[in-house]
Write a structure and sequence with these properties.
Layout: E1 2-7, H1 16-25, E2 30-33, H2 63-73, E3 78-81, E4 84-85, H3 91-104, E5 109-114, H4 119-123, H5 132-148, E6 152-155, E7 160-164, E8 178-181, H6 187-193, E9 196-200, H7 204-218, E10 224-229, H8 233-241, E11 246-250, H9 256-271
Parallel strand pairs: 1-2, 1-11, 2-3, 3-5, 4-5, 5-8, 8-9, 9-10, 10-11
Antiparallel strand pairs: 6-7
Helix pairs in contact: 1-2, 1-9, 2-3, 3-5, 6-7
Length: 274
């Protein structure tokens, strides 16, 4: 089982380059970073975590800028979005950003995707929350076309363009892996468009039956990465018993010294299971 880190990179915490270097030095295999373009001041959508929305949600750096900076100072670390909010992203621009990151990093990009939860945020991008699932699926299909076809063309309900040249193409073939976030309502998306399921903090006792249902729907064994996994030994053993591919330990957004101390402790935990 592999071990990585999930976090929010902001202007108040450790810098992207310091974080990336520290993760690679401690033998973590991956970094997945969150994305929010902004947070509306007058927000009616409740925060899924309950209570007040943490400040980190509206201070996140652009994920592809941050991951590119990290890619420059690392050699092996997988560079993932956890998650990119596809309903709020132009598919042509996003496809170019992902392909560019994959190129400059030597084939280390991972596109973690989701449909989002903040309805006011997505409305500011011109997205109807009621159709964000269909929109996400269509944009992912269009992006795959842009990555793989010399003359890419797509005609759908939400995305429509005649043949275009779109370069660079990704280093990874046919394209960087797509990790689909979400619960069981996202299983159809995982089955059709995903290379892996990005499960959000699901405990092992619940995750096992969900993996069985996902594999049955997909007709294959879908790799699973657990986002914001606990560092409890019993839970880790449970995940390993289920054949989970990767655990992402959550790292709070704090200054560099505190972050490094936190990473030291998590690295010790991970080393016991490698």
């Amino acid at each position: 089982m592999k071990f990585g880190v999930s976090t929010f990179i902001t202007d108040q915490g450790i810098s992207p380059t310091a974080l990336g270097t520290a993760l690679e030095e401690r033998a973590f295999d991956s970094l997945f970073i969150a994305e929010h373009s902004h947070i509306p001041v007058d927000r009616q959508t409740p925060y899924p975590g309950g209570g007040e929305l943490p400040e980190i949600y509206y201070r996140t750096l652009d994920p592809f800028v941050a991951l590119t900076a990290i890619g420059v100072v690392t050699e092996r670390l997988l560079l993932g979005t956890g998650i990119a909010l596809i309903p709020q992203r132009d598919p042509i621009i996003t496809a170019k950003e992902v392909a560019s990151l994959d190129l400059v990093s030597g084939g280390r990009a991972v596109l973690g995707v989701g449909v989002g939860w903040n309805r006011e945020e997505m409305r500011n991008h011109g997205t109807d929350p009621a159709t964000r699932g269909r929109l996400t699926d269509e944009r992912l299909r269009a992006m795959r076309e842009l990555w793989t076809a010399e003359r890419a063309e797509f005609h759908g309900e939400f995305v429509d363009f005649d043949p275009v040249f779109a370069w660079p193409k990704p280093v990874q073939r046919p394209h960087p892996p797509i990790y689909v976030g979400g619960g069981e309502r996202a299983f159809a998306r995982v089955a059709e468009l995903g290379d892996a399921w990005l499960a959000n903090s699901v405990p092992p006792q619940e995750l096992g039956p969900q993996i069985e249902r996902l594999n049955s729907l997909a007709g294959r064994e879908v790799p699973v990465t657990v986002y914001a996994a606990p560092d409890d030994p019993g839970q880790i053993e449970g995940y390993r018993g289920l054949g989970v591919e990767r655990l992402l330990f959550y790292v709070p957004t704090v200054p560099e010294r505190e972050t490094l101390e936190h990473l030291d402790r998590l690295a010790e935990v991970a080393a016991r299971y490698r």
